[in-house]
Design a protein that fits this description.
heterodimer; A: 400 residues; mainly alpha; two-stranded antiparallel ribbon; 2 strands; B: 174 residues; alpha+beta; Alpha-Beta Plaits; 2 domains; three-stranded antiparallel sheet; binds iron/sulfur cluster
């Protein structure tokens, strides 16, 4: 206890005992839980907000490269400081409220657009564990339901913005958005039911752990018990592959693939991204529901949209792409560096998905509104319902 | 002409092949631009297209002198009247006794063009009976305030320089 003796000489004895008892309090189970959770929340929020601003930057650069342009490359090396410059610019602008707008709801709407996607991040397992602390802020048993419920709240921000602006374009944008989000909410939730039926749990942590042992949801077969040591033994390797490939696994893969496709496409509609960005179709509605916003009000909508994208990408990762897991890489119980690698794997998957989101946006033209509704109600809804029955039948056949 | 709308077969109706094809195209462009090929952006302040400006480019209006160093403008004020945004303000004066160009009678005492107003339409150049005002190739006109944006007579002559001979406006492309 040299170190503690060394530190203690800087404090009076009374203060030192107080500090020591505080330290004990922090190491009691509930005390430990509270400060680790706080620390996790703060760090995750900081990382996600950083990721959000760089997603905006990536969107601008990637779109430029796809269109044979350069994109922002002036602020800092290759324009990497552009998000900071953008934030400063938005902070310095006047936060204008139109005279005829309903002030309270007008101001509330922009906050409502930002908060739900951030709340979703609270239940997502973004890593296995670090120093024995699970890397989920709240591992709740209704995790998946919570995600769906919270993400449907985000429609309020848009509807309120459209209505309270008291102006025609935001109003049209708000109406479009509410009908679109309500329609796609349905196929979004229904498409997930086969996943829950197969895993048998709504807890996102358990869904990830299921995928660690049984293979990712979108993989038709999965090597069993493969690790670094077996890599050098071809026979063991072959056994692990053949043990993982079975008819039942393959049969269950079919409904999961359909689920993934529906969920992935509905996610585009849910986050108002092209090809479903009708609520903010610039050519028709100027800016859609956020036409009347300026400064931070606008920034909150903008950031909220990208946070929703990140939240969507992390939900897809968690449910279908194995969350933080990667074959051969053990979880955090094998050492803290593995825990860090798991977190890195999770964020890498998110970044890849974000790139696909951006890539799709700059490829596909916008749907017409009736096409959008037809796709949602006539196609995805039916397909998702049929998929549930398919999964149920297959499960009844496969169940050991 | 009648354009027949093609009946789509079920694979085409899925849209997925078309979407994947589109993604492949954008990916090709992305990869090409990432390697620095095919990017057509010009880095403006460092790279300029000045060398490619055509002879008839409509930049900032300027005043010119003739080969004898005489200011061509005779203060008829036609340009002032025709200028659509009223960017030109002229104060004429009589050329004093003893001046070698006394018989020209009038010259501008003050000739201001407010570049914050000018729309580079070129009407002043077209209307001038003395071929005294020309739109030159300067396009980057800046100033810190409105008064700095006004080009006075000295500045206009400095930018315009000397113009030899007459230009026949009815020729092809001036
Ligand atoms: S170019 Fe047109 S706007 Fe400009 S000074 Fe001449 S007449 Fe006026
Ligand atoms: S520039 Fe030409 S049109 Fe204008 S006042 Fe002088 S002579 Fe007349």
């Amino acid at each position: 206890m040299d170190a503690s003796n060394f530190i203690s000489q800087f404090f009076s004895p009374a203060a030192w005992t107080l500090l020591k008892s505080l330290g004990h309090l922090l190491m009691t189970p509930s005390g430990f839980f509270i400060w680790t959770t706080l620390l996790k929340s703060i760090i995750l929020l900081a990382v996600i907000l950083g990721l959000v601003s760089y997603t905006v930057y990536a969107e601008r650069r990637v779109s430029a490269l796809i269109q044979d342009r350069l994109g922002p490359n002036r602020v800092g090396w290759q324009g990497l400081l552009q998000p900071i410059a953008d934030a400063l610019k938005l902070l310095l602008k006047e936060n204008f409220t139109p005279k005829s707008a309903n002030y309270f709801y007008f101001r509330l709407a922009s906050k409502l657009a930002m908060v739900p996607p951030v709340l979703v991040l609270g239940v997502l397992p973004f890593g296995s564990s670090l120093f024995g602390v699970p890397m989920t802020i709240a591992s709740i048993n209704v995790g998946a339901l919570y995600v769906l419920a919270i993400s449907s709240i985000s429609v309020y921000g848009i509807v309120l913005a459209g209505w309270s602006s008291n102006s025609k374009y935001p109003f049209l944008g708000g109406i479009r958005s509410s009908s679109q989000m309500i329609s796609y909410e349905l196929s979004l939730a229904l498409s997930l039911i086969p996943v829950f039926m197969i895993v048998g749990s709504l807890n996102l942590d358990e869904i990830v752990h299921y995928q660690v042992s049984h293979g990712w949801m979108i993989a038709p077969c999965w090597p069993q018990g493969m690790n670094f040591h077996t890599l050098l033994h071809p026979l063991v390797l072959w056994k692990s592959f053949s043990a993982g490939c079975s008819l039942s696994q393959f049969l269950l893969w079919i409904p999961l693939c359909i689920s993934f496709l529906i969920f992935f496409i509905s996610m585009f509609a849910e986050t108002n991204r092209l090809p479903f960005d009708l609520p903010e179709a610039e050519q028709e509605l100027i800016g859609g529901y956020h036409t009347e916003y300026s400064s931070m009000g606008f920034a909150l909508f903008f950031l909220g949209e990208y946070t929703a994208m990140i939240a969507g990408a992390s939900v897809i990762t968690t449910l279908f792409l194995g969350g933080w897991s990667l074959p051969l890489i053990p979880d955090g119980s094998a050492g803290w560096w593995w825990g860090l690698i798991n977190i890195a794997v999770f964020f890498t998957k998110i970044i890849l998905l974000l790139f696909i989101f951006i890539w799709v946006r700059w490829t596909i033209p916008r749907f017409r509104f009736d096409q959008l509704m037809k796709l949602g109600w006539y196609f995805f809804f039916e397909l998702a319902v049929a998929n549930i029955f398919l999964a149920a039948l297959l499960l009844a056949y496969v169940k050991k | 002409m009648i354009v027949h709308r093609k009946k789509l077969n079920w694979i085409e109706k899925l849209y997925l092949p078309a979407i994947l094809g589109g993604l492949a195209i954008t990916w090709k462009h992305f990869k090409k631009s990432l390697l620095g090929k095919g990017v057509i952006t010009m880095q403006y302040p460092e790279e300029k297209w000045d060398a490619h400006l055509p002879a008839w480019y409509r930049g900032a209006p300027t005043l010119v002198k003739d080969e004898h160093g005489r200011e061509r403008c005779v203060s008829c004020q036609l340009c002032e009247f025709i200028c659509p945004p009223r960017a030109i303000t002229i104060e004429p004066m009589e050329i004093p006794e003893g001046d070698p160009w006394r018989k020209v009678e009038k010259a501008p005492q003050k000739f201001d063009i407010d570049m914050a107003r000018c729309i580079y339409c070129g009407l002043c150049e077209e209307v001038c009976p003395e071929q005294a005002i020309y739109l030159r190739k300067d396009y980057s006109i800046t100033g810190l305030n409105r008064t700095e944006m006004i080009h006075h007579k000295e500045k206009l002559y400095e930018m315009g320089g000397v113009m030899h001979g007459l230009v026949f406006k009815w020729n092809e492309k001036k």
